[in-house]
Amino acid sequence: MTIAIIGGTGPQGSGIGLRLAVAGEHVILGSRDAERAAAEAATLVDTHRPDGRLEGMANADAIDQADTVILAVPYKGHAELVTSLADTLAGKLVISCVNPLAFDKRGPVGMQIEDLSAAEEAARLLPESTLAGAFHHLSAVNLHKLDHDLSHEDVLVCGDDQESKATVIRLAELVTGGRGVDAGALRLARHLEPFTAVLISMNKRYKTNTSVYITGIRQNGDTK
Amino acid sequence: MTIAIIGGTGPQGSGIGLRLAVAGEHVILGSRDAERAAAEAATLVDTHRPDGRLEGMANADAIDQADTVILAVPYKGHAELVTSLADTLAGKLVISCVNPLAFDKRGPVGMQIEDLSAAEEAARLLPESTLAGAFHHLSAVNLHKLDHDLSHEDVLVCGDDQESKATVIRLAELVTGGRGVDAGALRLARHLEPFTAVLISMNKRYKTNTSVYITGIRQNGDTK
Questions:
Q1: Quick check: A188 and B201 CB within 8 A?
Q2: Which tens digits make up the pLDDT trace of B177-188?
Q3: Which residues of A touch B152 (CB under 8 A)?
Q4: Which of A39, A40, A50, B168 makes a 20 to 30 Å CA pair with A216?
Q5: Confidence of residue A222 (pLDDT cuts 50, 70, 90)
Q6: What's the domain count of chain A?
Q7: Which tens digits make up the pLDDT trace of A75-85?
Q8: Which of these, A138, A55, A40, A56, lies nearest to A95 by C-alpha position?
Q9: Is the Cβ pair A202, B181 closer than 8 Å?
Q10: Which residues of A fall below an 8 Å CB-CB distance to B?
Q11: Do the Cβ atoms of A215 and B211 come within 8 Å?
């Protein structure tokens, strides 16, 4: 599988890309700036020597070569960027890990947005793509520390297409070595995304990098 | 400490009350119907013989005798009930575990409400009380099974008053035997409450009772 990561030079996008490449997947970091994407990929390859191929190029070229596209961009500019890439994204699985958050003197908080979540906004703007939401809660810092065990950090996956959701769950397992968990319908992205504000709040309070583990589900979703 | 639980005959309220009484606290289950509250308390005492005193009475009488009040009512009718009790709640610590959720053929989802969360709505309606949010994610089923170990089910506590939040964190530790975690400002209740829709969605998918554990925080919040 070839996975393109839009926003692939940001900390979250490059961290997910690095983990997928380490797991042996072919990963293309995408950016508005092809040279910046190539440089980031080269740095990651030099530093970590992943088993999978990891390269960087302009967003549209990255999408063109990929089966699956991860959207890891800031929410600011999200609608414009997604709209500009709609044609190349048609027919593909698009996984949003966009977190629309605001910060003020009282700390982090989820933004109130018209579509209620970035994933639902992307679904509206990409009627010919299949949307899923995932990877909202993984700490970029921990993604980049390859010696940090992520296997107890659950990836909560939401989406309305069951087959695509199964693909995202498998990708999640590759990223963390732990679980992808089927969290339900795509619209639940409106609750997954802003939960990141709660995690960031706890990161500040406890001077750490938090994530989420769901109790009550046996390993790999086996509840027998 | 004496703790009143408004909505004390519901599954969540009676479950939290039972666990607090087992931990030795004095708990008063409150209800619109004093007899129903007394009967529920008597049943719990007969069944589980908790160390702490557990009784039931009308909401206003329960609040009158308590230092701390837990609001465990359905969101439907929440504003009217809270308004009707505002005078007796003045000067007290009020902990909301109200989850404004809707259910349709696509599953559970958080309601879009004017104050963004039940806790913020209660804070607006109770200007002379101190509000906190907690206990949103504990499964009522597991609360009632006393042999179910809750010590890995974190209670995420939000509030703007640090001293009250420390009290709620201690109560959380009594309920679960595990951690109360300082999740940040009261407004983050708008993200904690609807996250329960995600948990209910996973409960259906995996046929279990899920809850939340936060990774990256050492036990009891000690990050050293």
A1: yes
A2: 999 999 999 999
A3: 215
A4: B168
A5: very low
A6: 1
A7: 999 999 999 99
A8: A138
A9: yes
A10: 106-110, 112, 116, 139, 142, 152-153, 156, 181-185, 187-188, 190-192, 194-195, 197-199, 201-203, 205-217, 221, 223
A11: yes
Tokens of B185: 């400002």
Residue of A nearest to B159 (CA): A106
pLDDT digit string, tens, across residues A127-144 = 999 999 999 999 999 999
One-letter identity of residue A222: D
Please list, in sequence order, all residues whose beta carbon lies within 8 angstroms of the beta carbon of residue B81, skipping any fewer than 6 positions away. Answer: B6, B59, B73
Residue numbers in A near B106 (CB within 8 A): 185, 187
Answer yes or no: is B214 within a domain: no
Chain A residues whose beta carbon lies within 8 Å of the beta carbon of residue B208: 216-217, 223
Q: How many H helices and E strands in chain B?
A: 9, 11
The enclosing domain of B116 has a CATH number of 3.40.50.720
Q: How far is A99 from chain B (nearest CA, A)?
A: 13
What is the pLDDT of chain A when averaged over all its residues? 96
The pair of structure tokens assigned to A124 is 């509206």
Contact B193, B110 (CB under 8 A): yes
B154 CA: distance to closest CA in chain A (Å): 10
Structure token digits, residue B67: 């230092």
Determine the structural domain holding residue A172 and report its residue range: 2-206
CB B96 within 8 A of CB B132: yes
Q: How far apart are CA B161 and CA B132, in angstroms?
A: 8
pTM of the model: 0.96
Report if residue B217 sits inside a domain.
no
> Best mutation site among B141, B188, B208 for testing chain A: the one with the most A CBs within 10 Å?
B188
Tracing tokens 């806790």 back to the chain, one arrives at B119
Q: What is the pLDDT of residues B12-30, one digit of tens each?
A: 999 999 999 999 999 999 9
Q: Name the nearest CA neighbour of B173 among B195, B196, B150, B191.
A: B150
pLDDT mean over B184-205: 98
User: Is A66 a member of any domain?
Assistant: yes
Question: Residue A150 is encoded by which pair of tokens?
Answer: 């992520």
Residue B220 has pLDDT above 60, yes or no: no
Specify the higher pLDDT residue, B222 or A141: A141
The one-character DSSP state at A186 is G
pLDDT given at position A218: 79
**A216 falls within a domain:** no
Distance CA(B186)–CA(A69), nearest Å, equals 36
**ipTM of the complex, rounded to two decimals:** 0.96
Residue type at position A103: F
- Gap from B47 CA to chain A (nearest CA, Å): 25
Residue for token digits 């951690």?
B179
User: Which of A108, A137, A102, A128 is CA-nearest to residue A212?
Assistant: A137
A222 chain-B contacts, CB cut-off 8 A: none
